[in-house]
Structure formats: C-alpha cells, structure tokens
Description:
The structure holds two protein chains of two kinds.
Chain A: E1 5-12, H1 23-36, E2 46-51, H2 62-69, E3 77-80, H3 86-100, E4 105-112, H4 119-127, H5 142-156, H6 161-175, H7 189-193, E5 197-200, E6 202-203, E7 213-221, E8 233-242, H8 257-270, E9 279-281, H9 287-296, H10 305-310, H11 327-330, H12 335-350, E10 366-373, E11 378-386
Parallel strand pairs in A: 2-3, 2-4, 9-10
Antiparallel strand pairs in A: 1-7, 1-8, 4-7, 5-6, 8-11, 10-11
Helix pairs in contact in A: 3-12, 6-9
Chain B: E1 11-12, H1 22-32, E2 37-41, E3 47-48, E4 62-66, E5 71-80, E6 93-99, E7 105-110, E8 122-129, E9 134-140
Parallel strand pairs in B: 1-9
Antiparallel strand pairs in B: 2-3, 2-4, 5-6, 5-8, 6-7, 8-9
The structure holds zinc ion.
The site of zinc ion has 8 residues of chain B, from loops.
Amino acid sequence: MARRVAVVAGGHSKFGKRYDATMRELCAEAYKPIYDEGITQDKIDATVLSYAASQFTGQGAGSALIADYLGMQDIPHLRVESACTTGTASLRAAWGMVAAGLYDVMMVLGVEQMNRVSSATATEYMSRAGDMRWEYPYGISFPAFYALMASRYMHEYNMSHDILAKIAVKSHHYGAQNPKAHLPKEIPFEEANNAIPICRPLNLYDCSLITDGAAAVVIAAEDRVKEFTDRPMWIKGIGAGASEMMIQDRPTLTSIPGAKRAAKAAYEMAGVKPDDINMAQVHDCFTIAELIAYEDLGFAEPGKGPDLVENKENYHDGRIPVNCDGGLKSKGHPLGATGVSMTYEIMKQMRGEADKPSRQIKDVKYGLAHNVGQSGQFVNVFIFERGWS
Amino acid sequence: MVLMSEQKELYLGYATDKAVTPFFQKFLEALAEEKLLMSKCTSCGTEFLPPREHCQKCLSKAELVPFTETEAKLRSYVIVDFAPETLTSKAPYVVAIGEFPSGKRLTAHITNLMSMPEVGMPLKLGFEKIDDKRITYKWLV
Lengths: 389, 141
Ligand SMILES: [Zn+2]
C-alpha cells in the first residue's frame, strides 16, 4: 500500500495585478516563507510547477526557469498543465511520486501571470480552452460556458439572480479580510446584483478575476514528516473526474458530472461523508460554479443549493463554511496557483492561522478542496485531515 | 497546415484556425450549399453531430451523411456581452445549444431574436454565408 503523505508547509504571494513582478518573482514570494521555516532547497527532492497558460507569458520550459530562479537548478522538476485545475493536478502528481517512494519531499509550486495582456486578449486565450473546431468559432468565452449552466439552472429550479449575487457578497466579505486577496473589498448586494453584464445571465460580480500570483506547498512522506512539522495535514482522499469536452454533450448543465465523480472517489478514499467536512475551498470561477459545487459535493441536494445560500450556511460560522478566504472571486484566480492556494488556505485554517478571527473557521478536522478545469472537463477533489489534536 | 491549391478556403463561423482535414473540408463545402452533415460510424453505426471522423465508441472511421432534422428546442443560452478579442465587434451576440428531437445537439448563434431567449423555446436550423470564406449553421426563432 502507498505511504501516507502530508502537507507540511506552505507559502503564498500577494494576489493581484502584479505589474511589479513576473512569474519568477511571484514564485520566490511563495517559496520564501517556506525557506524561512527551514525547508531550504537541499531538503526538497523534486518540484512540480503548476503553470497553466504559457501563452500569457510566452515563456516555455517554465519549470526550468522557476527551479533555477529559486536556487534549485540541480533538483528535478516538471510542469503540469490541466487548465484551471492545474494546481491540484500537480498536487495529485506529486502525491503519487511521494506515495510510491520515488521521492520523500516535494514542493508543488503554482503560478500564473495573466495581466500583461489586455482583458480581451485574456478572454480570447481562455476561450481557446473550448473545442477549437466547434465551440471557439462561436465566441464562447470562458464565462459563457458557465452562463450556459446558469441559464439552465435558473430555468430548471426557477432561481433568480439574487442567489448568485449573495454568493458574490459572501466572497467579497471574506476577501476583504484576506491581505493576500486581489480585490479585498466588500460589495453591497445591490451592486453585485446589478453590475454590468459580462455574459448574461452573469454580470461582472459573478466572475472571478484575472490575477497574477503564486502559492506553494511542501509535501512529505509519513516517516519524514516529523522533520518538518508537528502539525501535518494528511492527504486523506483524492478524487479525479472528467466530463465531456463540449458543453453541449453533457447529460446535464445543472451539475458538473466530473465533479460528482471526483467527489465520490475522494470521499471513498478518505472514508468520510459530506457531513464530516468542516470547511471547503470550492472552485468559484463564477458564482454559479460555487452554487453547483455545493450540490456536486453533497452539501446540498440538487436544486437546494440556494437554500444553503439564503441561510448563510456557507459563512465561517455556518454549517459548511465555503471560501472564507474570498475564493477565486475576491482573492483572485491565477490559474496555476489556484488549487495550491486552496490547499494552503485549508492548512492555515486547520492551524488556526486565518488572518482575522472574523474569518477563522473553528476546529477544522477535515477540509475539502474542489478544483475544476475549464468548464468541468477535469476536476480534482482533495480531502485533508488534521494530523494533530 | 497548407491547403491544397484547388481547395476552396473555408472557415466555420468565426474560426481562426486554417487547419482543415479533407473530412472537415467536405463538411464545410456541403455547409456552403446549406446542407448540414453528421457522421455515422461505418462499423457500429453510431451517429455524431457535429461530425467526427473517428467513432467515439469503436474508433472506426465514420462517414459524412446528411442530417435531416431542422427543428430543435433551446436547451440553454448565453448573451455574450464581453467577447473574446476576435469577436469584440460582434458583441452582444446570443449563443444557444439547441436539441433536436433525436437528442442530437448543436451550438450556434441565434441571429434573429427580438426579445430575450427562453429555455425550451423552439428553434429552426438556418444557414449563413458570413463572407466569401466564412459559412455557418445558425439558429432562428
Ligand atoms: Zn463505431
């Protein structure tokens, strides 16, 4: 049987429009706190670079550049690309290598630099993650894929846009308390509900941000964990799922089939149920994505996600706190960094190290990360367990 | 990919990709004559819309055959206000997934809407020559 693996350390850059830095400097910001904890280059056996979209930078061989910049020029590295789920895909790859015994200690470093091109160009690049032959020719931008889900969801469950706006309000409420967030400001409900349309029914505040940033975590095999921390966060369950490439071919638009499959696999591997989860970091690239995630992860029955929102069960002191760091919506969504940032946030919450008591979730034993690629073609769900009492 | 010189240069909708295969070229040439083709597996008979050259089930070659359904229902839609760079001048435009009675689906623009689209509304298959090289299927209400 595979060795147990734990997350033992993490670091996180400031997210935002980082015109003061490019991907190499962002990665240094994410690794520095880990280095300062004593996990120097010589303690790391290999790294995985989570870097989703090289078209934004033009930089090829990204993992070589970053390894060199961080003083790991002689340490094995590789790059993973799985669109917006690259972060947890990288963690999954690294977990496999450590669990199998190939390496004992690995660092997963997620980064994206997206703001050196215009918004229209960024939208263009991201639309190319749709089917280039059949979807791209109709100008289906990244938000458009989720708007197709939103229109259908609103129709099937007779839901108004108010619910989506309330999710945005919650995200910004917590993002405002996160010093690492890209857009750390509260948004009033009326503003969130009536913002300029981007892809109707989705408006500006339904959409995540185009963000520069990096995040890093170090994982270690169980017999090495004690060298690094007495507060390990065990990787308890990993589930991966897939869905049809073209959104028109999905059997449903009110759920992401691959997310359900990923969740089922993760719960089974971890031996826990949705009720056992104390907090979740879900992939809210759009507000509708967060709503659908509640249902795909089993926190609400199909069509009942809106009740969870209305009752504020998704707040830090609610039944299932979700994205109390601001999420992709307010903290930001640097594609390759996102899944790593989710992992980092769960570790900080478990350790009781959220920036402010007003966003600290109490007594986190199990945390879940739900990380979706493109519009659901690939999904990773991780369940982490607190390794101390 | 280099096009053969005698081959007419055609693009589907607002595609930017010049790379066509003989199979896709045949689909586009039929589309230019307002004929929509699907594909049918030569081994197991499975049908695909939009067409695939290889069967998704058995990976055998699939051949292009006429698609004859013309009426569909709107499965979902989006009004794209903020478009990708290549379509900025066309925004806002409406993209709809339509479902035919057989269950086959097609994603295209609705071009003649006078009011807000609604899930479940009837759609008719139409065709349009956007310019000399660009052709498309589309939805009409
Ligand atoms: Zn076949």
